[in-house]
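User: Show me a protein chain along with its predicted structure.
Assistant: Here is one chain, sequence first, then structure tokens.
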Amino acid sequence: MFVNKKTEKLQEQRENGFNLIAYGTEITGDISTSGDLRIDGQILGNVSCTAKLVIGESGDIKGNINCYSGEISGTVLGQIVAKEMLQLNRSASIKGDIEATRFIVEDGASINGRCTTNKSLSLPSHLPEVKLITYEKPQALTE
């Protein structure tokens, strides 16, 4: 049997790392990783993951997502591209277009956007621009 060295190297990279953004963590800026990524916190920026991306129920992303495969239980405001399978669990809330090779959508998941399947999907080399929402915290009242 023949082994493609490029595919073997990508598989090895995906198996070597795991990243966690815990509940209560807020990050403003783009995130890029070649390892698995689980997000339970809030991200204001684009997320690129060449392995598996998991967004927990408390996970909140405002930005575009590009991943190899994904499982979403939280909230996403932005475009999602998954090279392989994308699973939307019942608590998922998506506002944006989705493109993946395969979908699994549980009853109760909310999608407000177009869904497209494409067997020859590849991850884009760059992320499209996303207009980020800015928000100012109110100042404390003084007596």
